[in-house]
Amino acid sequence: MIEEEEIDLLLKDLYEVYGYDFTQYARASLKRRINRLWTLDKFPSFAELRYRVRSDPDYLKRFVEELTVNVTEMFRDPTYYRTLRTEVLPTLTAKPFIRIWHAGCSTGEEVFSMAILLKEVRLLHKSILYATDLNPEVLESARKGIFSMSAMKQYSENYILSGGTTDFSTYYTAHYGRVKFNEELAEKMVFSTHNLVSDRSFNEFDLILCRNVLIYFTKTLQERVLTLFDESLAPLSYLGLGSKETLKFSSIQSRYKQLEGEKIWRKIG
Amino acid sequence: MAKNRLNAGHSVDCSVVVIGGSTGSIDVLLRLLPALQPPLSFALIIVVHRRNTADSTLAHLFSLKTSVPVKEVDDKDVIRPGTIYLAPADYHLLLERDGTFSLDDSEKINYSRPSIDVTFESAADVCGSQLVGVLLSGANADGTAGLKAIKSTGGFTVVQEPNTAQVGFMPQQAISGGVADNVLDIPGLIRFINDLNTTRSR
């Protein structure tokens, strides 16, 4: 088990050597991730773990990818997608372009879910989906639109519960235990690295989705990120968070109105 | 000071009680909760395996059984004595040194999210000897590693008597693993938890 002071040392290294700042990540989860990696990669001592992180840039990629949580699924919380379909997207139909930002998109399951939603409400042709993450590796995976076949049963159920009426399997082609989603869905996606800790706003959006990312941050960092989102949201645009996250207690709260029963807020001020 | 006289003759102080359970544990909790004598001098954290639905039916069900406030945890909630906290479905529940909760949606542990081990280990890390861990009925090996962590940081562990559990596998794992300080039937568990409570009216 890693000691608190050792975590501090490691985080200092990550910042000084590579510019990754994890000091404002929620500590309990971060500690668990580091312990998990220590065990998985069989380091005999903290000193050896630290040396490897400092001196091996290839290992660093793995370290950062494993330190951050990249668990995601398609149409997670189906009622959330139902609300996007029935209440949010219809208010955007009059716009010439629709810009959507998936902040912390991980391996892209939510981005593909959104593309399916947009296609079904006939808005995909005029939408752009910006999908960003801290990890170049997961973005590379997201860009390919290839997912494991074994998850499709669950995703298909989620899709139907979200109000989807098409045969879900028409959206992908199966191949050796994996599926590739149709190219058409990926045409409007732009993938790029972006670090919510240190990078700035890069556009103005009609909808920002950042689900189950803020839970890994301290309140201080959450406040920074919410301000960044606020600066990136057009009037009457929307912000969607994870089911246990909130705008409450943040400084931007007064400018937003929450949609009934969902973690989606509309910018009203 | 909570004084819970045990066979070993020493007493238990605690600021946090964390209860973990799986199949068959909800029935135990529905008997335990009405028997609690508020106000509680500690925070009571409950981690139960259940379906991955985002609705809060279980928290509501629990709240009908006790006058102690029941809260399904939201990100960064402050941990307060006198409150029952329920781990939300589909998240691991962790404790921070600043006295708040944090949530984590990383990989399932023991096929479970929330995982009892994750919360037990995190609570052990933060609460040390001020922690009591209770493991109830279940068909899964979750909880044993967590109880071990609680013992190693000076906390106290209690396991439901497997014969009284709907599914005895989970508490039996803990007993076989040598991580149970005490093994109690349901009336015994109720008495034990009420005895931890230093503010109850007598």
UniProtKB/TrEMBL annotation, chain A:
> Transferase: is it a keyword of this entry?
yes
Specify the superkingdom.
Bacteria
Q: Give the keywords, sorted.
A: Methyltransferase, Transferase
Alphabetized GO MF terms = S-adenosylmethionine-dependent methyltransferase activity
Family annotation (Pfam families):
CheR, CheR_N
Which intervals hold domain CheR-type methyltransferase? 1-247
- The entry's protein name is Protein-glutamate O-methyltransferase CheR
Provide one Gene Ontology biological process annotation.
methylation
TrEMBL record, chain B:
Name the GO terms of the biological process aspect.
chemotaxis
Query: Does the record's keyword annotation contain Cell division?
Result: no
Enzyme Commission number, as recorded = 3.1.1.61
Q: Please provide, alphabetically and separated by semicolons, the GO molecular function terms listed in this UniProt record.
A: phosphorelay response regulator activity; protein-glutamate methylesterase activity
Q: Which UniProt keywords apply?
A: Chemotaxis, Hydrolase
Name the catalytic site residues: 22, 49, 142
Catalysis performed (reactions): [protein]-L-glutamate 5-O-methyl ester + H2O = L-glutamyl-[protein] + methanol + H(+)
Its protein name is protein-glutamate methylesterase
Source organism per UniProt: Spirosoma sordidisoli
